[in-house]
Specification:
about 15% strand, about 230 residues, globular, 9 helices, alpha+beta, 7 strands, two-stranded antiparallel ribbon
Length: about 230
């Protein structure tokens, strides 16, 4: 965006690189760094997100159990042992989440193309939470913008961690009273994001009293995250 201005006003030589190309090259690079690429089992994610539950959660009780869930562990991608050995990170699908979301298909040679995406990304979450909660808003540019952005993210994440989305979301259990086993849905599955708000309130003042900001933050975080997952 500022290429011409930098050259004109500062008299410097600017080397431009394409963002997505750098992203793919960087992905190939970090795959060669030992224990840099990893993923979590769903059991481990649940245990971390529910630290006060002493019992072990059976896979069948997880919100979204995999067909063959792994054990409680962090699983690392294979790392090269010999010089010149290539880690098979490609082909893959890259879901690049920023203010919006780009979904990029990468073939085995590292060639890539954007195949999908959504405008509902991090910027959507920040914008809606800024309007619906007291999380501090921000403006400005450069370092001031970045500092304010980090503070905002921290506040919003803390707010969502303290919330319970069941306070505003309509769950499967709210409709059926239990799991909907015939269609494979657990009672904790979100049936309608913010579905309880319309049914329980009629005025703005009622909504402010009935619904906690932390619950709103958790609901929005789930809504944006789930949508990105579905698109991917």
């Amino acid at each position: 965006m500022y290429y011409d201005r930098l050259k004109r006003d500062l008299g410097v030589e600017v080397l431009r690189e394409e963002e997505m190309e750098c992203l793919i090259l960087g992905l190939g690079f970090i795959a060669h760094v030992p224990e840099e690429v990893f993923w979590f089992s769903e059991e481990l994610v649940y245990k971390v997100s529910h630290p006060h539950e002493p019992r072990t959660i059976p896979a069948s009780e997880l919100p979204r159990p995999s067909p063959s869930p792994p054990s409680y562990q962090v699983t690392f991608a294979p790392t090269p042992h010999n010089a010149g050995e290539v880690v098979p990170v490609f082909p893959c699908l890259v879901v690049n989440i920023g203010s919006g979301v780009s979904i990029v298909k990468v073939d085995e040679n590292g060639e890539f193309e954007r195949v999908s995406g959504t405008s509902l990304g991090g910027g959507t979450l920040w914008g809606l939470l800024s309007m619906l909660t007291d999380a501090r808003t921000f403006d400005g540019e450069s370092f001031a913008y970045q500092e304010a952005l980090e503070v905002l993210i921290s506040e919003m994440l803390a707010l969502s961690e303290a919330g319970d989305n069941a306070g505003v979301d309509m769950l499967v259990g709210d409709i059926y009273g239990t799991d909907a086993n015939k269609i494979g849905l657990k009672s904790s599955t979100i049936a309608s994001t913010f579905g309880k708000v319309f049914r329980k309130s009629t005025t703005r003042s009622e909504r402010a009293e009935l619904f906690k900001q932390a619950d709103i933050a958790r609901s929005l975080l789930y809504a944006i995250s789930n949508n990105i997952g579905h698109v991917a």
